[in-house]
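Feature request disguised as a bug report, sorry. It would help if multi-protein outputs had a clear separator. Right now it looks like this:
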Amino acid sequence: MKLRIVLSFLLLVSIAVNAQVPADTLEARRLARMISLSEVVIRTDINVAKFIERVKNDSTFYKAFKNLRILGFTSLNNIWIRDKKGKQVAGLQSKTRQVRENECRSMSVIEETVQGDFYDRHHQYNYYTAELYASLFFTKGKVCNETNIVGGNQFSTRGKKGVEKHKEQLKLLMFNPGKRVPGIPLMSDRKLDLFDPNQAEYYDFFIDQEMYEGRSCYIFSITARPDLSSGQRDKIVIDKMITWFDAKTMEVMKRNYSLSYDAGVYDFDVDIEVELTHFGELLVPKTLRYTGNWDVMFKKRERGGFAATLFDFTR
């Protein structure tokens, strides 16, 4: 039976032994004292402060999606929109194939079924959920000269309006969970920073280790404390984030996270599950499941979701 123990003394010893490692910043050391470890992890003599630094600086999750820009792949797509009673009012199921030739990518639709008012009369999407999905997995026309380089490549809402701005805000939340994200209206970027000392006190942190898809993985769980007052709940956006890190490479292999927030003029409640795999040396998304409930002032509340299954990668 796994035992959750906060080992301040052992963590201090570990930090002392590894004090020569630059990654052990003072902030990471402070956070390390707040983290609970399973018995399995205790026996690995993990340097918790260094582990936190690796987590904070992780770019493997975002890069896995960037890798889709330089690969060919087949995708099974399922998008649905529901009313307040849970009845589906619109949807799409399709199979698509992205190809990349001569530094350009394009996409063909192999098969497609549509329900309800998924498209308008100009064959444009009627829903934000569909717009978001398309920006992640669909290619319109031919797109050229892209790379999978992550360094210095940041999302920004600057100069964007309407649907394009909302899509970018969703991407900010999806690809940077737990990190400061500027540009989201009526939301302090600190509320998203799980490792900020003022935010960390609202969460329980736990590290476990188990096999996942044949790989030994650290499972890093961050969950909002169950005893938070309503005022404290208003200060957080991420309710839960559980990440499976490859114990050897520290690549993200799986991530489940839940976000919710009410800013008055808009509110959202989102759950996301992502599984990743390798194509050669590249990390790529394998499945992504999303459910979201969004309400923006002067817009109709949207309850939607989607599921993507990616396979048959080529380069």
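(second protein starts here, but nothing in the output says so)
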Amino acid sequence: MARRSPGALRAPLKSAGRNAVRLRPIDGLSKGANAAIVRLEGTHPGFVPVATALDGYRRAIRRSGRWLDLGDDCSCPGCDVLYQRDVLGDAMRRLPTAAFRELRRVVEPLDEEFRRKTLPDPRAAELSAWHAQAWWRQRIRER
């Protein structure tokens, strides 16, 4: 049986290189804030890219109608609005002050729409400490 060479096996896996993430700046942020986000993602290798989380958060909020459906249609973290907001919250906590302010300025209108399209869950904080840590986890998941 013929075997493929190691180079042929790796060829489809090649990416744009080490700087692939750096090529995609976040709209609405300065070069300095984008650079701070790239540094943050570089120092925390398991960190989900902030641009990816922001795009997913925007898409989830804008695609829905009057109510935001937080149902568990898909179990992957990339489809979970709360996970995407957690990533943005973690990034904002770890960024320097100037970059934090710029990212917060981009995220705040989305948060306002999130609040407008969901209802508070008065018992969410009683469920677990995880729910009590962030306001976006204390929202009703279904209409």
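Even a blank line would do. Unrelated, but nice: The longest helix spans residues 97-117.
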